[in-house]
Write a structure and sequence with these properties.
Length: about 180
């Protein structure tokens, strides 16, 4: 009887240990990013970065802030709008995008209404002349803000509510 009770006790103790280990790991995930890096990114992007946000997107976007505009460029020495979206998408999402704003809109995305934009969606604008073609593209972050390469100031975060972007809005796009 003693052997039986002792064996049951060992099995019970093992079961409790295994249960504790399994339950303690439920819902947790290892954070790959240093909170200091996220704090710096939040300052550069001028926005709060929360736990459920795509940290990889925000860290990559922050690294591009201040990069000068260069037509046809796709590096941190100089970048244009579609070069920026292509580079960030390749790094963050491991997806290859076309090289022009209009090609990204037509070939790489499906249409998304402005009110349904999600983090990482592309935002497209026309230049006022060809109102059906995308001449500018950026990546939606959150709270009405997006990152893009402005021809006048380089890579910045802007608001969709700014007068220029509101007037020149074409559509949102979710990459396929």
């Amino acid at each position: 009887m003693l052997k039986s009770t002792s064996g049951k006790t060992i099995i019970y103790a093992a079961a409790v240990c295994i249960s504790v280990l399994l339950l303690s790991s439920c819902g947790t995930r290892r954070l790959n990013y240093d909170f200091r890096d996220l704090a710096v990114a939040a300052i550069k992007l001028d926005m709060d970065i929360e736990m459920n946000d795509n940290h990889r997107l925000y860290l990559e976007a922050a690294d591009w802030i201040g990069t000068p505009y260069r037509y046809g460029g796709s590096t941190k020495k100089g970048v244009d709008c579609s070069g920026l979206t292509s580079s960030i998408y390749r790094t963050v999402y491991k997806k290859k995008l076309s090289r022009s704003a209009e090609e990204q809109r037509e070939g790489d995305c499906r249409r998304v209404l402005k009110r349904n934009l999600r983090e990482g969606d592309l935002v497209f604008f026309h230049n006022g002349k060809k109102k059906r073609d995308a001449s500018h593209v950026g990546i939606y972050l959150k709270d009405g803000k997006f990152i893009h390469a402005s021809s006048s100031v380089g890579v910045v975060v802007s608001s969709l509510n700014e007068r220029y972007y509101d007037r020149h809005w074409l559509q949102g796009g979710r990459v396929k």
